[in-house]
Amino acid sequence: MKLRRVIFMGAAFAVFVMPALAVEGAVGRTLPGVWVMPQGAVVGPTPGFSFTVMPVGYMGSISGGRQVPIAGSLVTNVSADVSSNYLVPQYVYKTETPKVSFSSSFLAPVNWVGVTASARLNDLSRRGKNANAGLSDVIFTPLTVGIHFSDTNNLAISTMIFAPTGAFTAGNLSNLGMNEWTIMPNVAHTILWEKRGLELDNFIGFDIYGQNPTTRYTSGTMFHWDGMLVQYLSRRFGFGAIVSNLTQINRDSGPLSNVLHGFQGGAWGAGPMVVYVAKPKNPGVILQFRWVPEFAVTNLLKGNTLLLGLTLQL
């Protein structure tokens, strides 16, 4: 059971994902089943730098005439295509105790975003399309604390910070950024049963959104939990299942939110995953597939998350 920690990377495709309407722009910081990773709570133990290239693809749509707040406007029948490329440097610090590890990481995304939506003007509905490319909202984790209770029982505590570095213009359908700071305090836990080849991973986080100063919209705080059970058939191949929950714990606020009477949504998701280590090192190449359809959805649109990932560990 010496599979290296898998960070979400590579050609990741979210096909027919129905994002939470409770978030301005209809696509929030979290999609069902995305943040949990195999051995996601294992920090280190080898100190030093690592670099990862992470291309990400996303396609999603919202239909049925549902109103969505995007960049200060209410639109309907939204479809979006997003292509992102991330450079992820990470540094693991040298420590004197084997029980605790520390790391810092940074994600720099360069995005292409294309969005088509309908806007209503008086009694007429007009269909519009926008596309933009450039730097999106960067993400940095100043410090992750990894606690090693044992070789098979690990805990990681950190806070991800999303900075509003992406371009944002009121009325633009395809903004590269959300124009608001977001913090995500989170805890990850990994436990291994080596004799049975089993692994259980959990990820718990809170997406706490700041106010968009342009639209004065503040998205509600989203609690999310992802759990994953993996059965390894060898050191290179494993399969399992993911269960996910998103629950908004307070309403949105702002002028458009008041028109929509706010949202407090929630959803469950569950589906299969597969992981394969094509090459253990120099560089490490890891393939991952997951499909997470949603159910028991309240005030969120129902859909599926489909990810096909390629991890490069240089």
Write a structural description.
This protein has 1 helix and 17 strands. The protein is mostly beta strands. It has one domain (about 10-314): Porin. The two termini are about 20 Å apart.
Taking the alpha carbons of the first and last residues, their distance comes to 21 Å
- CATH topological fold name: Porin
Report helical residue fraction: under 10%
Written as H for each helix and E for each strand, in order along the chain, the element string is EEEEEEEEEEEEEEHEEE
- Low-confidence runs of at least 5 consecutive residues: 4-22
Mean pLDDT across all residues, rounded?
Answer: 78
CATH homologous superfamily - what is it? monomeric porin ompg
Query: What is the total number of structural domains?
Result: 1
The number of helices is 1
Shape: globular
Return the structural class.
Answer: mainly beta
Query: Sheet bearing the most strands, described?
Result: 15 strands, mixed
CATH class: Mainly Beta
Overall radius of gyration: 20 Å
Percent strand: over 45%
How many beta strands in the DSSP annotation?
17
The CATH architecture assignment turns out to be Beta Barrel
Keywords:
Porin; 1 helix; mainly beta; two-stranded antiparallel sheet
Give the SSE layout.
Elements: E1 12-17, E2 48-62, E3 68-70, E4 73-92, E5 100-121, E6 124-135, E7 139-150, E8 153-162, E9 182-193, E10 198-209, E11 211-212, E12 217-218, E13 222-232, E14 237-248, H1 255-259, E15 266-279, E16 284-298, E17 304-313
Parallel strand pairs: 1-2
Antiparallel strand pairs: 2-4, 3-4, 4-5, 5-6, 5-7, 7-8, 8-9, 9-10, 10-13, 11-12, 13-14, 14-15, 15-16, 16-17
